[in-house]
Amino acid sequence: MKLADKETWVEDTLKSLDGMSQPQAPDNLFENAMRRAAFGRALILRIPVVQVWSAVACALVLILANLFICLDSALFDDQMIGSKEKFAKEYFQISDTP
Amino acid sequence: MESELVNQLRKNDPVACRFLVEKHGDLVFNTALGLLQHRSDAEDMAQEVFAYAFQSVEKFRGDAKIATWLYRITLSKSLDFIKAKKRLKRFGLLLSIFEGDGAKLAVDKPHFHHPGVLMENQEKAQILFLAIEKLPERQKIAFLLHKLEDLSYTEIADVLQLSLSAVESLLFRARQNLRQYLGSWYEQNRF
User: Fold this and answer.
1) For residue B8, which of A68, B16, B83, B121 is within the disulfide window of CB 3.0 to 4.6 Å?
2) Which among B14, B47, B148 has the least Cβ separation from residue A36?
3) Is A23 in contact with B116 (Cβ distance < 8 A)?
4) Which domains are delineated in chain B?
5) pTM passes above 0.80
6) Residues B52-76: tens digit of each pLDDT
7) Which chain A residue is nearest to residue B15, measuring alpha carbons?
8) Rg (CA), chain A
9) Binary contact (A23, B148; C-beta < 8 A)
10) Are B68 and B24 in contact, with CB atoms under 8 Å apart?
């Protein structure tokens, strides 16, 4: 009996949307949508393709220049350490190696 | 007729825009309402859908009907909104761990009363909407389009870009899952 009650209730619940009416959209939908569309258009920046590619090229040059400077300074540091050792060896006969 | 309307929309003709909203406003609002289960969210979504439609009418190729195109935009935007809301809910739960229950209450959804449901069915429809929310995404969409929008299987197949048999299978599984959810709800709450 309880199982039958449950089945009936489930089927009734599944049918609870039958015969429903479509709710109407709000009256000011058109005005609000137009306002939103105009605001969206104002936010879109129209940038020429040439300018975009120039910006990309500039960014690439900057990145490469930075990389080059970093690598070059690391090489310079190595050279500096080498020259200090050379100087110490030549004038004070000091060497790191025993 | 539809191609003429699309041409006018492409020219940003306000009369054509108004006609589009007047003709399909209910369709968009009702679909959003079924998915979002929140009146003010659905109103906001309807505005968003039409604003997007006005802006992107250039992309409309005319392969499908305007109504189908609007259904697709509504579904896509509503699903994005639901995902964003779920993220917010998760964030709310995280906040509630640190700040107590106040933050959790702020993102909890109240029970949904669909304004189109018959008065005598309101209570059961409310439970059905809770069950619909638990359905997988595609089953939920197919079921809502069939029940709320009264779309035929062929029309649902057009909107979801699926075969007819795929839609039949989705609706069959949706009903099966709903029976299961409702059954367990009945056992937990009626005894």
Assistant:
1) B16
2) B47
3) yes
4) 1-80 (1.10.1740.10), 114-191 (1.10.10.10)
5) no
6) 999 888 888 878 899 999 999 999 9
7) A30
8) 38
9) no
10) no
